[in-house]
Description:
The structure holds two protein chains of two kinds. By secondary structure, chain A is mostly helical. Chain A has helices spanning 2-9, 12-33, 52-59, 61-95, 98-113, 116-127, 132-139, 147-150, 152-178, 181-189, 194-205, 207-222, 226-231, 243-253, 257-283. Chain A has a domain at 74-240: MetI-like (MetI-like fold). In chain A, helix 9 (152-178) runs antiparallel to helix 12. The longest helix of chain A is centred in the N-terminal third of the chain and has 35 residues, at 61-95. Chain A is globular and about 75 Å long. Chain B folds into two domains: 7-150 and 336-393, 3-Layer(aba) Sandwich (D-Maltodextrin-Binding Protein, domain 2), CATH 3.40.190; 156-334 and 409-453, 3-Layer(aba) Sandwich (D-Maltodextrin-Binding Protein, domain 2). Helices cover 45% and strands 15% of the residues of chain B. Chain B is built from 21 helices and 15 strands. The longest helix of chain B has 18 residues, at 7-24. The chains are: A mainly alpha, B alpha/beta. The interface between A and B is large, with 36 and 45 residues.
Amino acid sequence: MTRPTLARALPLTPAVVLLLLFLAGPIAYCVYIAFTDLQLTGQAESSFVGLENFRTAFGDEGFRNAVWLTLVFTVVSSLVGQNTLGLALASLMQRASKPVRTLTGGIVITAWVLPEVVAGFLLYAFFRREGTLNAVLDALHLPRQNWLFTLPILAVSFANVWRGTAFSMLVYSAALQEIPREVTEAAQVDGAGGWRRLWHITLPMIRRSIGTNLMLNTLQTLSVFGLIWVMTRGGPGDKSQTLPLFMYEQAFQNSMIGYGTAVALLLLLVGALFSVLYLRLLRTEV
Amino acid sequence: MPVRPTAATLLPVLLAATALTACGGGSGGDPDTVKVSFKQSTDNSIHVTDDYLADIKRQFEQSHPGKKVELVPIKAPDSEYYTKVQQMLRSPKTAPDLVYEDTFLVNSDITSGYLRPLDAYLAKWPDWDQFIDTAKAAARGEDGKTYGVPDGTDARGLWYDKGVFAKAGIPTPWQPKTWDDILDAARTIKAEVPGVTPLNVYTGKPAGEAATMQGFQMLLYGTGDGTTDPLYDETSKKWVTGGDGFKDALAFVETVYEEKLGPDVSTALDPNIQTIVRGDLLPKGKLGIALDGSWLPQDWLPGSGHEWPEWSRKLGLAYMPTQHGQAPGKVSMSGGWTWTIPAKAGNPDLAFEFIRTMQTKANAKKWYVANSGIAVRKDVAADPSYADAQPGTEFFTGLVAFTHYRPAYPAYPKVSTAIQEAMEGVTTGDLSVEEAAAGYDETLREVTDDHVVQR
Lengths: 286, 455
């Protein structure tokens, strides 16, 4: 009896070993480092410091600022922006003619497939003082804007919406196609208007997709680094320094790997909190 | 029943085995190969370092029969290069025999125990006497030992646009004697030549180290009597809190941005400000005076993508004066890179032989000329064919006698960030000079574990 099981398990062993080695290993090592004062350079030996790094983080104004900005960035760009815009685009495209659908889809998806850094440079060129946005505003005789300087967190949030909406759109397009036509038609016959149908039929029926989409979007947005780095480098000051940028500054610019890793773990925690929140919201029955 | 190994079961095992050996495969102990790590340009069209090292490799292998050189380029921007090198230095398996290091981090890496002192080698190397004293000190640890051989340096000064000066009616050649002379010229340009940014001084966190070094320290080291380091006290080994000189330097930055003598604040705090200055403002004649580094012409050389051969006729050079023109009159800051041998290197003797090959007079000269570097060897600096190789070289080489190096101790990167934050506060007008200096003192205490002294 044992022989066949062992023989079957054998081919799996390398995969398991590799997973342990390259996935679980580094994660465990990260968790360990977060409790040390390890530095990249400038230190002969590192030592175990317990919860010191976490205590430092909560007492650090820069960290609190980064948490706040991360929340703003996530809520504005992912929850509100990508999510609702994606749903809106998906439902509009359902009714659109095929050429319009292909064209819109194509444009939105182009933004999505661009590498993060390229998208960052494009939007930097759009928002900067001598950039496209101001050229357009000038042409329309509207006052010039300089969001990269005055409201950088909004500018990078907008950039993330621009880049990430395609994903939500694809998820929702698929979900909307799953809704049986009869249900909507029946509601229409019963005299339900557009908003009512959306609220009482469409949204409840795609509830699961909303949950998945929100979760994936949020996790993706929490880890955005290149986009913000290219556009503002977290500045001016620290007005757009979200947690990943704060982490980078601590770990690689200030060489404090231990502290940076602790911040990374806290970022994971923020992601976990969001996930739990979504799962709870989704459990409520229709 | 004997288990018959089939392809299906063997393959994953093989894969796992190769993956495992791949991560354990160290630099090995080949005593005849010297591994040289260096920073390769992220710009694919620039091969200056690659070509130079390939040439040295050829010379070395010819003069050392049986020995081999393995070049290990690391293609990354500065900060990522440091990170990568520091990770390699941690283990004997990955440590190269010779590594190219920014002097800015040498002291940190010495403290970490990553590097090997070279004094025994240097004592037996007659060419070491040709190196100027400040350069020798650049890679000296707090323990007094020397850990690196510098291969050139840089300097900083004032670049000015002769065309803009002509329109503003300021006579050229121009040489300010005090900070006020600079501000006066900028004010004249502002009044007489609309549409031109009078003066650029890098500031704030987005400009990073450029703000601290090209901007702030060029001012700070021109305050006081110029004999002591205004940031770090060597005798007590403590950092110096923001005193009068610090506030005066901040006040200069404040004046520049408050009177709108500098670029628009949002441009000054643009993360790409250095590219804007070098690639746009200066070549297009839209900037009057730039406080910047000796390496600027590198960007305008043929093949760089934005050639500007006329720069030497259009731009003039002036040294940065001290605050009130007090002795020694001139200020410059220098950095530069140095060749170091890791503590965990397998072939340190051979590595030093390679340094000696790189640093013959002829090879050193070849390198300074190729990368627009400033000579740290007295015999090369005195060589007319080096001085004439590029306009500006002679000017900046002359500044080396007045130059300062940063106190590049382990806390320096954090101190630098604190300076950038103070500068940014006065640039945007959010903080007064007093508040910004007080904020600096507070951060300084924090990042240096209270190793501070008031002066």
